[in-house]
Design goal:
Three copies of one chain form a homotrimer. In chain A, a hairpin with a 2-residue loop joins strand 5 and strand 6. Chain A is 30% helix and 42% strand. Chain A contains three helices and six strands.
Chain lengths: 163, 163, 163
């Protein structure tokens, strides 16, 4: 066997781990959507780090599990207005992992049932950061701005240029 | 070379295989959409196991290749009403593989051309099971319920909680 | 260690590389969308090979960086009409890699903000080819036809049948 076989094994495991991490980060985003849409508020909040933040707009931002619980359970809030008839999705997700930290950039589309039909409820540009804890990737920060809003999407989605 | 190199090689191959299986399962879902949208009825049906089932609602369920052929080719059926102007997609797909069996949970969105415009035709919550046969992953069961329907999506999409 | 360990290492690296290539090709498609939507015209064009082509319909085709720059920057063109309020996405992407060449088949959905609401702007069937240059996957040709148009989608999306 080649003398550098040990080094090659280490290299292959690192590259494999990088792909596994990306897969798990996509699962964290799927879990985010499932728990929001199914009204699983506790599991939704547990998908974030302790100081996790959702930043949906200049004046709409929640940090930490207590505020995140308010965000997702408030009877008068934006989420309860659509829960049970909504579908949160993320697409075009571009991911970079560095050790136990990671970031992703991509698009979010929320669909809803409206009367007897279906439609697009919101469109967002996103930059997410993640932290790995006990083998699981948690959401640390979601920076999201609406498509066609006052802020340029290029201020949200930009790290991919160097990625 | 380290004494445990053989064991490490076996471990790496298993982890690699797990990622390859997920990729192939996503391809099975893409193939499902392509064959439905392109009117390739034979290939659509062959994407299922012999006793494969599509369960779209409490009273709309087809099992086995004969019934699946009826479902996809019936001139008076729901599929023929949109074939040629539709696009079936699956997103937020969460996959678990165990040997030659697998399941996935996620969302389906069907879009259609309507007149000169385009829109969202249906939205569904899904739990799929798959079986591997001759190196290819086939659909065994699709349990799908509409978004905003009578049944709670959390009865369809739930295994991810332990995944 | 087993006598065939070297051969196994080579095999595992090739399989790993195949998954990494697919991931990078998905990133090329994400980069395509990000640069188009953010108005990053130079980076949009650099995402193509020197003779890269976008073929959106029988009479709407641009080849090479000069024409592609025209396509994406023309003040009277189709892209400028929606830039700043649009979101290009690709889903159901089926990929095959052969050395430094690759192809993919799948769906494209463009969403826009319309007034105070959001909607589906276009739907497309796609066959893309890619070339690897200096470790990066570039778009060589995009063959796209609209859903529900004059041409059958099965003329665009068909290589997956043998894939």
């Amino acid at each position: 066997m080649a003398a550098d076989a040990d080094a090659k094994l280490v290299e292959l495991e690192q590259r494999l781990q990088a792909l596994e991490d990306r897969e798990k980060i996509r699962e964290t985003l799927a879990r985010y959507s499932f728990t929001a849409d199914m009204g699983r508020s506790r599991e939704y909040v547990e998908n974030y780090t302790d100081d996790g933040t959702i930043d949906l707009g200049p004046s709409t931002k929640w940090s930490g599990h207590e505020e995140l619980t308010d965000f997702i359970t408030d009877p008068a809030g934006g989420h309860k207005a659509i829960e049970g008839r909504c579908m949160h999705t993320s697409v075009n997700t571009f991911i970079r992992v560095e050790g136990d930290a990671a970031w992703a950039e991509g698009y979010s589309v929320v669909y809803t049932k409206e009367g007897e039909g279906y439609g697009v409820y919101t469109l967002g540009y996103n930059h997410w950061t993640f932290k790995k804890k006990d083998g699981r990737w948690l959401l640390a920060y979601r920076h999201r701005r609406p498509v066609g809003g006052d802020e340029w999407g290029g201020d949200v989605i930009k790290e991919f240029l160097d990625g």
